[in-house]
Amino acid sequence: MSQKSPRRSNALKMFVRDLSFAPSRRYVDVQRELGRIFTVGKVDVDIDQLISRTFLCDRHRCIQWTPHEKKKDARPLIDNSCCSRYSVPVTDFDREKLLRILPLVKKRLGKDHPLNADRDAAPFELDSDYAFVMREQENGACQFALYEQGMTTCAVHKTCLEEKLPVWEFKPLSCSLWPLALLDYDRDGEDRYLLTIYSDATSGLFDDEDSQSNDESHFACLVDQSPDYDPLYKTMQGVIEQVLGADFYRTLDKYASKLARR
User: Fold this and answer.
1) pTM over 0.85, yes/no
2) Least enclosed by CB within 10 Å: which of 28, 35, 55, 85?
3) What pLDDT band is residue 68 in, cutting at 50, 70 and 90?
């Protein structure tokens, strides 16, 4: 009488199941085995990217200007800022709040800006995956990137400051998060999140279309990891608290301090 081999059958099922896991889950599993994941509730924190990596945002290092250029509408020779190279995903909530503030933002844009020149122009467009992203200028920079008197700023951010409006309420969350990335994945029916960053080490977690956001060589803030800078999670304290709460940040900070003493 022949007998089936349940062990082989179960092994095959496990093999097929493991191969079908999302990249985020596989990444977390590998990093956890290495002891490089710290978990707070449903959030798995990438230790190497948030705690071990130092970070300093200084827009003067990623933008180079024509010497002695004083014109109001001067454009930089080189713009390797996140506002130029990061393709900004836009949620339905982002679109709703940006449309509310758009009339005020347009006042900070030039008369020949597409959003002013064409009344029907929308600040968003659909990408190949049918997801909304922010429209870009011809040079690849975000349409809301302003170049004024040797400086660059975000028109949405500038509008909020000048109109005394809360920046968090109107600026797209993904803009404030960069280089942080909060990815959702499924673990046996449970929704979980991976908190990491756009970097060379995590490029496999993102679509090919985001490759320019993952290449560290484009961003001075990611290339320069001086020990004199704060850990990335400290530099990004404000947005982490805004998205995940002050209690989450305190727990993360306590663990990072303990880790540093080892």
Assistant:
1) no
2) 35
3) low
